[in-house]
Design goal:
mainly alpha, 7 helices
Length: 166
């Protein structure tokens, strides 16, 4: 699916993909919520991860707008260290239960939507996001942190509910 290039498309895509993910989360079996996969990741971890990456994006945007240095992806980490970063994130979020992870995702989605609704087309797609050090627009970063992550999470979670194939 090509990336959105207009504010209405970005808002529609983010809203639709969050609704689909929410439906999957609402129906996700309680017995599987804390069961780790072969990489040690639980469905609860995935929900917390998606919530956190929205928070990261919002921080990047805010810092860039303020003219502050933007730490991509996070302070002390480089993009080639995402596996370690995500493992550290799982450890930091170990105390979250399913309901807390869902609440964090819902709250951060609302914050993301508030930002998207408050920005105009030029702010979203008129040029690179300030502080990003690449050509991605604010809208593209928002889609990566929101709709794209929602789609991949829903696909992963649906797969976790299917019986293993032999």
């Amino acid at each position: 699916m090509p990336a959105a290039v207009t504010k209405p498309d970005l808002i529609a895509r983010t809203t639709q993909d969050f609704a689909k993910l929410s439906d999957v989360l609402d129906r996700f079996p309680r017995a599987l919520r804390l069961v780790a996969d072969e990489d040690g990741v639980t469905p609860k971890d995935l929900v917390g991860h998606r919530a956190h990456w929205i928070q990261l994006f919002l921080g990047w945007y805010t810092d860039g707008q303020a003219g502050k240095p933007v730490d991509f992806p996070a302070p002390g980490y480089k993009w080639n260290q995402l596996k370690a970063y995500n493992a550290d994130l799982r450890q930091a979020q170990a105390g979250l239960d399913w309901d807390a992870a869902r609440a964090l995702l819902d709250a951060n989605h609302a914050r993301l939507m508030s930002l998207l609704e408050g920005l105009d087309q030029a702010a979203l797609y008129g040029g690179p996001m300030k502080g990003a050090r690449n050509d991605w627009t604010t809208g593209r970063w928002a889609e990566a942190a929101g709709a794209s992550h929602y789609r991949s999470a829903a696909k992963y979670l649906r797969g976790r509910t299917r019986a293993p194939r032999n």
